[in-house]
Amino acid sequence: MSLALLIDFGSTFTKILAVDLAAEEILAYAQSCTTVETDIMVGLRRALDLLPAHLKTASYECRLSSSSAAGGLGMITIGLIPELSAEAARRAALGAGAKVLTVYSFRLSARELEELEALKPDIVLLAGGTDGGNEEVILDNARLLAASRIRCPILIAGNKAAADEVQSILCAGGKITLLTDNVMPEVNVLNVEPVRERIRRVFIERIIAAKGLKRAEEFVEGILMPTPTAVLRAAQLLSQGVGSEKGLGDLVVMDIGGATTDVHSIGAGNPIQAGVVRKGLPEPLAKRTVEGDLGLRYNAGTILKLCGEEQILRHARFLQKDLAPRLEKLSQCVEVLPQTAEDHDLDFALASCAARMAMERHAGSIEALWGPQGQYHIQYGKDLTGIEHLIGTGGIFIYHRQAGDLLRKTLFSPEEPFSLRPKNPTLYTDARYCLYAVGLLAERYSEPALRIAKKYLKKWD
Q: Which phi-psi region, left, alpha or beta, contains residue 408 (left: φ > 0; alpha: ψ -120 to 50)?
């Protein structure tokens, strides 16, 4: 057998999959609590101990891993205009698998600089100005950052006419700097791939060691990417196909986790309805949004505040008493798994609210306006109403009997016709929790990875 071991150091659990590459089969899955705050290898060894005996001592052709442990890859982005370079920088960071802590626009204020220092990001992405455009703001922000207490790498992706001077200012302040192409070289023209690739390199070269993950590299060949990047890579593979293996077409992946709820969409999302005009920055073909306030464990109390008790209970079958203290306990004991029917029911109700809100934030919207010629409609973001496939991944989709119903909670509603959520997609769940592993395998074995992904999709009627 030709075996691969695929590992994900998650925010809550460390997950491992043993895969037979020749047979294109998943042989075993195991998980244990992530132990990044003490020794990352403890949680990994506990998960490995749960594998069948013959797989514990097997020889593996490759051992690949991803990570979102220790808060994942936390980034702060800075741009000039909120709807332009600042938004372009935010999208580039999200597409690279980062958790965007906050976004700043224009010249940083003293309060914003203090807030930035307190947030302690892993990377600061400094953008601003089209090539040959405004130089003053990015130079001012460089001077402020140079004099700040920020110690993380600063990635410069702004106006090329000012980029060298920006780097000189930051280096003179003792900062770690990296220079890449402008994320928005022209108005409404995005150039995110060079930024994404540089972020990934910084993650591999610097962030892994800073987050206590370096010891894991003694066991694996390297932590290749943040977990969200692996899932997005799997989504792209499933959608677009590779070589002679065809993809499924346009799709959305809903990934509900303990710390965040992520949504990945692959498709142009152009207006479908007649007379609708698109506005704003071009949408990337492969788009990811991350909702750091919608994790089922770390943010259980926040979901209650956002949605309200009535909305949560609307999705529950059992009478859930003492909701607020129970959710507070969940957010403090994030490794807790549901044990009773009531526990599973509460998880389903929370996940329903989180998934519904995450999809609404990810999908585009339409606004009706009036002009000299009468009413017309503007589309912001992606139109997902025609998406063909919707896939759920994450523990709740693997273990809950009503996973299909959970996906249905995210769909288009006639009561909210201006929210462009999927209307009638085919519903699937990632039955073996393997999408992160597919994204990792795609780096070396793209066609087998795609066939494995298809094989373990569970279709819901």
A: alpha
